[in-house]
Structure formats: C-alpha cells, structure tokens
C-alpha cells in the first residue's frame, strides 16, 4: 500500500499531509487495498456502504442499467478522486448505481467512522483529513451541478457544446482529450449514439471543431 503514498499525497482527502503523516493515517483509518480487473464491478447497486473509497490507479465509471439494458453513465472517477461518501451515513439507503472498472484499477477503502471520530491523541493531521473531506464533498457537488447543466440542454448539439466547452475550460486548452469513447459519451449525455455522431460530423463540417477518437479541437 505504501507505493500509493505519492498518489494519496496528491488527493484532496490528504492535501497538506506529508508522507509520514499519511502512513500513520492509513493505520488510523483502517485502510484496505482492493484491486479489480477491467470490466469488474467495484460496487453494485443494492450494496450498503460503510467506507469512503479513493481510486489510486485505473479508471472507474458510475453507471446504471435499466430493466431493458439501456445504460446511462452518471460519472467518471479518476485517480485520486473519492467516492461512496453519499451512502455511508447510518440511515443511508442502499447504493442505487453500479461502479465498474473501465481498466485495471486499485482502490483504498477507509472506515468513515474512524475518519469522523478524532483519535485520542487529537493529531493535527486527523483534523486536517476531516476538513479535506468536507472540501472534497463540496467539489463533487459542484461537478454534479455542472453535469445537470449539460443535461438541461434540449438538443444533442446543445449538450455537446455545453460538455465540450466545459472540458476545454477545465483543461485550459482548445485542444483536449475527453475520458469517454463515443458510446460512453452518448451514455453520459443520455443521447442516441448515432444521432450524436451525426451531430459531431455536422459541427465538424461547419468548422466548429475537429475530432479523432476522444481527442478534440475547438475553433
């Protein structure tokens, strides 16, 4: 687990902590490491959670399939991001989505009760982790608002413009890479893949953008 210390050091949860403090926190918070192969379920709909989880390698998708197998991608989890915090309260309902590894991945789980209960020594870095967790949850709420903004657009083109504009601003460049392939992007925006591909081609022909696979350039 120690090989992931540099990764944890860059996360919002452990921001401001040095290596030795993070190593101490791994024991204090009952940290557990789990690995998954591409395509494996990390979490399944209906599970009850008691751990906050941080992705330390790979990539995950939060998704949901309806009764007929139609898939919606609700979000992507990148290395360093925390997830599961919305379901760890004692009275929380069961998980309503699946979390799936889109490539070989590793996660570290932390017992939320140990996070919110300050240890007897009242160490500075434990209090800092609690503060960081609050800020990380606030950041995730902001990202949810961003996705709702994309989804509120009426047409496929408007959804694409909203999403691609946000990615360009996020990466501070008109040339950028998105974390989805075509089907995944359609699932994320809740649009038909063929209709979305046609719209992208029209936008390219109109001189609005260029693209190759998941690489984009906006004009």
Describe what this molecule looks like in 3D.
This protein has 219 residues and is of the alpha+beta class. The relative contact order is 0.14. Helix 4 (124-151) runs antiparallel to helix 5. The chain has 2 domains: 2-140, Jelly Rolls (Sandwich), CATH 2.60.120.10; 153-218, Arc Repressor Mutant, subunit A (Orthogonal Bundle), CATH 1.10.10.10. The mean pLDDT is 88. The chain has 7 helices and 11 strands. A 4-stranded antiparallel beta sheet has the order 1-8-3-6. Strands 2-7-4-5 form a 4-stranded antiparallel beta sheet.
Low-confidence stretches: none
Query: What's the Cα radius of gyration?
Result: 19 Å
Residue share in β-strands: 15-25%
Q: What name does CATH use for the topology of the largest domain?
A: Jelly Rolls
The major pleated sheet works out as:
4 strands, antiparallel
Query: Which CATH class of the largest domain applies here?
Result: Mainly Beta
With strands numbered from the N-terminus, the spatial order across the biggest sheet is: 1-8-3-6
How many DSSP-defined strands? 11
Helix content bin: 25-40%
CATH architecture descriptor of the largest domain = Sandwich
Going by CATH, what is the homologous superfamily of the largest domain?
Jelly Rolls
- Listing every helix as H and every strand as E from the N terminus to the C terminus, the arrangement reads HHEEEEEEEEHHHEHHEE
Q: What count of helical segments does DSSP give?
A: 7
The domain count comes to 2
Mean pLDDT reading:
88
Structural class: alpha+beta
Shape: globular
Report how far the terminal alpha carbons are from each other: 44 Å
